[in-house]
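Bench log. Compound arrived from synthesis this morning; before running ITC I wanted a structural hypothesis for how S-adenosylmethionine sits in the protein. Inputs:
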Amino acid sequence: MQRSSIRTLVLEFVDTNGASHIRQMHIEILRVKPGTPEHTIRARLSEAVSEGFLSRVGNGFYDIYAEEEGMTSVVSYPVRCSAWGDHRYRGNCDGRLPKNLILRYNARAVCDPMEGSGTVRDLVSGLNRYKKKDINYWGGDLRQGFDLTQQEIPGRHDFIWLHPPYWNIICYGSGDTDLSDCPDYGAFRELLMRCLHRCYEALLPGGRLAVLIGDVRRQGMYTAIIRDILNFPEGEIRSIIIKVQHNCVSDRRSYGRMEDVPIKHEYCVVFRKPVCEAKEIRTELFVRA
Ligand SMILES: C[S@@+](CC[C@H](N)C(=O)[O-])C[C@H]1O[C@@H](n2cnc3c(N)ncnc32)[C@H](O)[C@@H]1O
């Protein structure tokens, strides 16, 4: 089913029924079982509208903006939720992991300095709209002229989502400081560490930096990018989440004769900036003096 037609449907519905029903409709349409024909969805929708179904179910609807209870350090989203960002953008990520983290940490100022198609931007805008949150958002991307290796992130944030290129797995072709365009791993690591540092600097005390990254295997060589992320010296590691990968381009290849096992996961490492870092430094200076 086309995403644009879902949107059209929602808009038609809002036009005729007013804004009060939009949240429920939006949510229910997005929950649709993959592969359901569009005419079936349209039929169910008109039934729902004509029978007053929506007003009866009230708040009991499945809610894509709700925090998923029981999240653990292993997450898996076999069916992509295309409510946010653009799934056609290469490297686009499902927004449910950042959503759960933003809600879990009760973030008020969110930033995504490599926003690509704007998954986190759209997510925050939906949370504000449908959950009546008041979350500030700032986003940028090299493709829109913001270079994290060269520029400071404006403002201070309590949740920064960083989803960099996994070195040269997908090439975004934006020039020398594009992390996906680095000639060798050493150059990539240097830029990546610079980006992590900039993010860390833009965190408020107590704020969190979540980095989504995957390792690379190319021509038999395994590059463990995670090793460098885990060795980032600033902040404290609070979580290491394994995210199972689905629907990758590599899924269509046959690994029958591979010596080593195919990579089917990525990582989300969450760092926290200590609340009293400044106080700790001041105390240290005082003790030294
Ligand atoms: C994996 S994609 C992010 C996808 C995004 N999370 C989404 O859901 O659409 C990585 C992004 O990093 C951007 N990028 C690469 N180097 C950058 C740099 N130096 N500064 C800012 N963005 C950069 C690329 O343009 C690309 O959009």
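What the model suggests: The domain at 74-279 is CATH 3.40.50 (Rossmann fold). The pocket of S-adenosylmethionine is lined by residues 85, 89, 91-93, 113-117, 119, 141-143, 146-149, 163-165, 172, 174, 177-180 (CB under 6 Å).
ITC booked for Thursday regardless.
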